[in-house]
UniProtKB/TrEMBL annotation:
Family matches, as InterPro entries: Cof, HAD-like_sf, HAD_sf
Protein name: Haloacid dehalogenase
Organism lineage string: Bacteria, Bacillati, Actinomycetota, Coriobacteriia, Coriobacteriales
Domain of life: Bacteria
NCBIfam families: Cof-subfamily
GO function terms (MF aspect): magnesium ion binding; phosphatase activity
Organism of origin: Parolsenella catena
Amino acid sequence: MSVDGREAAILVSDNNARRGNGVIQAAFFDIDGTLLSNKTGHVIPQGTKDALVALRRRGVKCCICSGRPKAQLPWCIRDGFPGFEGGFDAYVVLTGSMCYDERGIYADTPIDRGVAERFVGLVDEGLFDCLTLDAENAYANRDSEKVHELERMVAYSYPIRGAREMLENPIYQFCAFLGPKDQHIVEDVMTDCIVTRWCDLFCDIVPKSSSKPKGVQATLDHFGISGAETIAFGDGGNDATMLEYCTLGVAMGNGTDEAKAAADYVTADIDDDGIAKALRHFGLID
């Protein structure tokens, strides 16, 4: 929902009245297209860094909520930066299938082995290439142009390992290199999973017992603020449920139509200080 100015203020007022009109205690951020910009070499823009520092000083828990695995978190996300030392307060990764903080893992939802074997059967048939994500990293089933395209998008090189070989360890997420028109290939078979997508290149497959909203709730429970008001930022279709679930959902100006439709507020692009502008709009930072 694209809103601004007085219309946004009315919508937010209505939203708070509906959900309790409390104080925002936790903020959840997607990574690609939300915190990391392709135009700045896949680092956090300085204006966003300054906003995160100011938000934490207000006592707000700053949390990651991403489809990336742990090993794919860049240093600025994992370790932080000046004024934001130690990184984020919590990490909801693998589209909500694993949640952890500095004390360790507090939510863990792998895909059932039988369900994972069913997906690998589709890969064995040669229907599509895939990424297989375990607790630490993501592996491509083979070297292909679609894998290289994703590597260019996220500035990461995926190691090669067969999908069936990966079944030796718990699997938390699959990524199938299928466009939107072909997504039914996995939806028709993986009926006990959630199929979502960040971009047209691939779709994510996670267990139905896992999702970004469930990761958000697990994090609030972990911190003992289960009834807290929350704000979330995202840009992709796989962020839509998180934007709807949190008290305030903010879509980036560079986001997809699906993300914008799910949001309470559409801010500026990532490279135009979209996060900082939204936080100021809602009075969360000066």
